[in-house]
Amino acid sequence: MESRRDFIKKLTALSGSMALGSLPGAVQRAFAINPDPGTTFMDAEHIVFLMQENRSFDHLLGTLRGVRGFNDPRFLRQKNCNPVWLQSDSQGNTYAPVRCDIKNTNVTWSGGCPHEVENQIGARNAGFMDKWIDQKTPKTMQYFTREDHPFYHALADAFTVCDHYFCSSLTGTSSNRSMFWTGKLRGLNICDLQLCRTKEHMDNTLFSLPGTCTWETFPEVLQANEVSWKVYQNQTFVNYLRRDDIEKALPGILKQFESQPAPAFHASSDPFEAILQIPEMIAAALKPLFEIAAKTYLNTDDLKIKWLSNFSDNVLESFLNYYPLLTEENRKVFKEAQSLWESLAPKTRDLHSRAFTTNIKDPLYNCLKEITLDDGTTMSVPAGDILYQFRQDVRNGELPTVSWLVAPEVFSDHPVSPQYGPWYVSEVLDILTSKPEVWKKTIFIINFDENDGFFDHMPPYVPSVQGAGKCSPGIDTDEELAKDFNSPIGLGYRVPMLVVSPWSRGGWVNSQVLDHTSTLMFLEKFLNAKKGNNNIQCSNISQFRRTVCGDITSAFRPYNGEKIVFPKPVDKEKFFAQVRRAKTNAQPGTNLLNPDDIEGIRSDVLNSTLLPKQEEGIRPANGLLYQLYAEACADKSKNQVTIALGAGNEIYGQTCWGAAFHVYWGFDDKKPRSYVAKAGAGMLTDSFNLSDFDDNAYHIVVHGPNGFSREFSGTVQDPGIGIACTYEFALQDARTLTGNVEIVVKIQDKSINCTHLVITDNAYGQPDIMVPLRISRYDDTITQVINLEHSLNWYDFTVSIPGNKKYYRRYTGHVETGLPGYTDPYMGRWDGATKPPLT
């Protein structure tokens, strides 16, 4: 076990670096340990997950170089024409994002924002993304920079950051963690039998009682397939349930149940058949367990809860089959608990022990110790090693195939506590890299469960509900509808994710759409390949999520012995006492704008000094397998405009990805529409009445993944042409893209009175292209190739007709060749000089 002095030294060093920008040695060591040349991520033997708490992507990493953050040129404009970064309240006050100096304000002590399901859904406002202030308070606009959080920025510089990673649901912690461990949040709860078939657990309180949820969890799938796994925490949270929490729920529960528990309850083919058995099967277990809880879980020591417990972040404590109240501590004290434990099958006991792996073997694991800091102040810290068992398993070669780590509150990055989370992450990395033979075969994935209430500018992708959009056949949108809230369940807002491994080094960006269920899809693919079968499946994951969200494998690259230059670390200067002193600093301010400010931002969003700016430059980007299309045309006979959207698979076949699209139209009170397209399932078409637009002039904007956007404007008097933006195929290989796009013009009306089109580059400095509309008796189609080599396969151009101000088509995005490339040079203000190596 490390000494207290070592613990405090590491903690204070991390905290000081958090304030002033130092880089811990664990990152350098992790970067320096090479796997065997020629290996891929499929050669890994250990997958380690650490889900931290309550930070949005823009809030934590929005100024990081190369990611889709505050410089995003494909931002959403709101109904009032303001960019999405300007958020107004119901009183007409408008706020822009505000940086929170972690050293000179008390931001680390000032708490978070409202983030219950009602205000998570409310901030999204059906996709308009314009109610953040009313729902969250102006604090929602706070963000950090590298100076404030150098550790996470350093990890991104050294490994791979995912800038399209979304939490799973528009909720708080427990629902998202249910998605993380089980793939869903809808299921049977023994406390609510009447609504169990349709009940979606959108609120933390529905997970608050231990052992009441009954659907299958992914660790049970691993257990059934003999895959080793553990969930590591210092202590379980059930040790800290308060008497009043139990007493409020106990009478209603005990009234319903009066006998033995049901093993593998979720396995019943008909949930209602199982329900009928509950009164005879559960209460004999529940009654003594809750009596135990009422007697013993009276530890209301807030310091111990913050420093030692798992903060109720191990959602497996909510599931019946894990018997969460039968902790080792209780079994030592209460004969009822020990008796019930002995009656359980060995597999059930093993399930419990793996899910609630604690540090009980450390004699000081339940103790705090007061220390004196350099500035003379004192504070309480854990007396034991909060990573004791994880450290022992790594040291002894006993790390399982799959591990989940759950930090205590103080180390979870949650805004209710000072931000000591980077120390915990660094210490996990330090433990893994202390054994090079372990690290070179390990994948360490760090993500965050939800955004708290902090703003993020990217609308989360959701399925169409109640007719507001369409989905490809086979996608059941009902299972993604939160009926009690008349809202999609998710996706939720973007949160950070970092993939730290020997096969994801080099400061890359991955822009595939992902969510918490992606971690389970990754385990499916990884473990089935290891076992040579397809037996490991999470049946809870919906078709919507399997269509829209990837499996994280795109974040990895083979290691072939490349030498990568590691970013130069900066010096450490200050210690933990500075963070403590920050508690007495002033509250962070807000960025309240006046009308002139707003008008200035509107006129030049990307160059405004009133908005945050990202670090300049580009990053290497993982190859993606999106083949996206969106077009529109007016139909004079029906007085409508029709859009067509889709995800092709002609290039990448079965490996091609589906996608979701947001469609904004009218820019008034017209509800945005959502579309979900399976790869190769054909185009989704939908129509809009021109009479629903001002002056019968349509204006439609489509947003998709990785900067994909289309903008269509016109009237029923559009010229008699059809325009499409497609991808150029290589002459020598019809399944390979060149990286260029083609504008294909089809002459539909030979009496057209315009002579040419103009293609105007909006971002990358290329001259206008004139496209003559020459009519041939043999061919009514004109193709214009647009070379994108200068812009690294990124594009942003408008197709217009001289003299016709109402008609135009704007196309933006990136040609996904499936090969590694670079992030958007326009977003990164790239000077066109040095490019990072694609290794």
UniProtKB/TrEMBL annotation:
UniProt KW keywords: Hydrolase
GO molecular function list: phosphatidylcholine phospholipase C activity
Transmembrane segments: none
Occurrences of domain Bacterial phospholipase C C-terminal (ranges): 620-714, 727-814
BP-aspect Gene Ontology terms: lipid catabolic process
Main enzyme class: hydrolase
Family: Belongs to the bacterial phospholipase C family.
Name of the protein in question: phospholipase C
Protein source organism: Chitinophaga oryzae
Top-level taxonomy: Bacteria, Pseudomonadati, Bacteroidota, Chitinophagia, Chitinophagales
